[in-house]
Amino acid sequence: MHSPAPFYPIGTPGIAWTDAERLQWRTGQTRHRSYADDVMARIEQLRRGFDVREYGDVTYEGVRFPLLAVRSRDWDDARPVGLVTGGVHGYETSGVHGALEFLERYATQYVGRVNLLVVPCVSPWGYERIHRWNFDALDPNRSFREGSGCGEAEALLRLVQPLRSRVLVHIDLHETTDSDESEFRPAKAARDGEAFEPGHVPDGFYLVDDSENPQPAFQQAIIDAVARVTHIAPADERGEIIGSAVVAPGVIRYPVRELSLCAGITGARYTTTTEVYPDSPRASSEQCNAAQAAAVCAALDYAIPHG
């Protein structure tokens, strides 16, 4: 039997956090970077070729964060929608910058072929603090359901709701980092009053398919494209990646809607969650961003003709 991890500095082992522990956690968070400078400024430059819309906002301790979506200027309701989301976990940097790189370098290739809707940074407070959670110590990527109380997730749900039947493909850009094991999973265990069981961080890129709607050829097309940019994560000695069976090289599956994950918000035919490993000695930050952009292009290139 595992005992609760004794080392996490907040809370009492085996007892879920109350508001007091959440406040203690929040007080310890430090702002490391600027959403306005890093993200909003780049989105502003995209207004020359795209429509930029504020689809909501979150305000924490008097600081307002506008939530921004970038849309195709030639939007045509007769076309399917390609949805790209990044920064659901604010600390997963290449998810944000990979989405922006796709918009800046590749999105014009899809003019007239698909309606693009790109949300580069779903969780700006988490982006600034390089954290998985939002201000309320909630994980946005377990909160995509009505009544979750997560403002970032609820705003994205409202944005997407009118388009759900028209979304053909949704690619959600994420990272798996060493800090998942050193900070975020221990923090989650402490928050929930559960035991922390150490896991293994895979070295390389992988995808999470939807176990209720598997699309192996679609996932393979993305893996093939990304393999030209960075390395694909191998299975561990149990044939798994982060505790899930590897169903194809670099591919695992989750029940995305059951888990209230971002990839399940549309019911699109083609969905995937990317996972880049930025801490690998074999991958630079530029490669990680490029891998995310390549994954988006490959997802669209496969889905549009197969739609």
TrEMBL record:
GO BP annotations, alphabetical order? proteolysis
**What family does this chain come from, according to its entry?**
Belongs to the peptidase M14 family.
Please name the source species.
Answer: Cognatilysobacter bugurensis
A GO molecular-function annotation: zinc ion binding
Could you tell me which InterPro entries the record lists for this protein?
A: Peptidase_M14 (IPR000834)
Where on the tree of life does the source sit, at the highest rank?
A: Bacteria
Q: Where is the Peptidase M14 domain?
A: 31-307
Question: Can you say what this protein is called?
Answer: Peptidase
The record ties this protein, via PROSITE patterns, to: PEPTIDASE_M14 (PS52035)
- Output the Pfam families linked to this UniProt entry: Peptidase_M14
